[in-house]
Amino acid sequence: SHAPIVAPSLGVISQVAYIWLLLRAFAAGCTALTGIEAISDGVQAFKPPEARNAALTMLTMAIMAMSLFVGISFLATHLHLVPEEAESILSHMTRAVVGRGVIYYWVQTFTMLILFLAANTGYQDFPRLGSFLAHDGFLPRWLQNRGDRLVFSSGILVLALLASGLVIIFQADEIRMLPLYAIGVFVSFTLSQAGMVRLMGKVARVAPGEEVSTGTTTIHYESGWWWKRIVSGVGAGTTFIVLIVLVATKFVEGAWIVVVAIPLLILLFISIRRHYDEVADALSTRGLEESELASVADVVIVPIADVHRGTLRALKYAQRLSRNVRAVSVVTSKEQRERLERRWKRFPETTDNVELVLIPYDFRDILKPLEEYIEYVNDVEYPHQLTTVIIPEFVPSTLPEQLLHNQTANFLRLRLRSHEDIVVIDVPYHI
Fold first, then answer.
1. Model confidence pTM above 0.85
2. The domain 297-430: what is its CATH number?
């Protein structure tokens, strides 16, 4: 009594498979277009007129790419070449046409150099793009700083770390990484074309001869704005369709990482921009009265563990800032107290005008009583005023030696950073 189960015909299956195969081939072929975004990102690097020279370069690149693509496809088909993991199609085709002579190795060498230059485009464009985003507050500000060689060194280092991480995660399999690159490129294509549609809409509202500043650029009336808007709209729609096809056909091959990463990156950009806006509001002097500024307490606290050249130098420095200087030391034994007092009296010219505060403590954690004393002076004796703490430290000549010293000073500095009205000054003594 059950209804018969009708299996789909082979014709329907073959049609679906053919469409899917066509989409996969289309998506794979679109990766050949990646690289032209380097030109659109680097228009400012061209000689004037920048836009015209960039357009000519892009046209030349497109002609060369299509000629190579059609020629290689024609030869590979007529020579009946089959892709192999151990040898690329280009190598196989060159060997079949000219043999293993000089021309073969010449083609292989230049292929390697072209791939090397292609990998280098990221190091040219990402630091520049990162500097733009950093200037607008969507990435850390230090990404817009140039190094000694007038390049964005920080952006290059960040890209190197991210690229190394991807290579490790994907085990240096470039085929698995291609979908990430292709999807990223077509996302940028779609966004840039959509941005041009919006820009031409603003241009349409500008009167002839008038200029309007948008905060990031200056726009003026252009007679052919409607044609440029149509072209940009068609381009945005086309690249968006390609993007959807790439995501659908390459999703399980790694494209899902981009789908997840892009929203997370947008949230990161927004959070960084929000942080910079909050910092700007907190530091703003709008409506600030000078009477609201915190006054400086007439006291300087110098934590010391012993009397040596470094502490004496810090005490000299402190006495230039205030007449009320207090040297504070935590003593854990009677012998330590007597030794400190004896050494203290050896230098009366420096120590006579300084109050020596000795805090007895039975435990070895000397940071706690020091912090409590500084908090007491700041909160009780000088409330709502800036209290200065000078930390003397000696600096050894080598890094391994530095790891053996000054750890107490470093921990005290970290603890005091959380106090709003305590100012910490370091006085180094190099040995």
1. no
2. 3.40.50.620
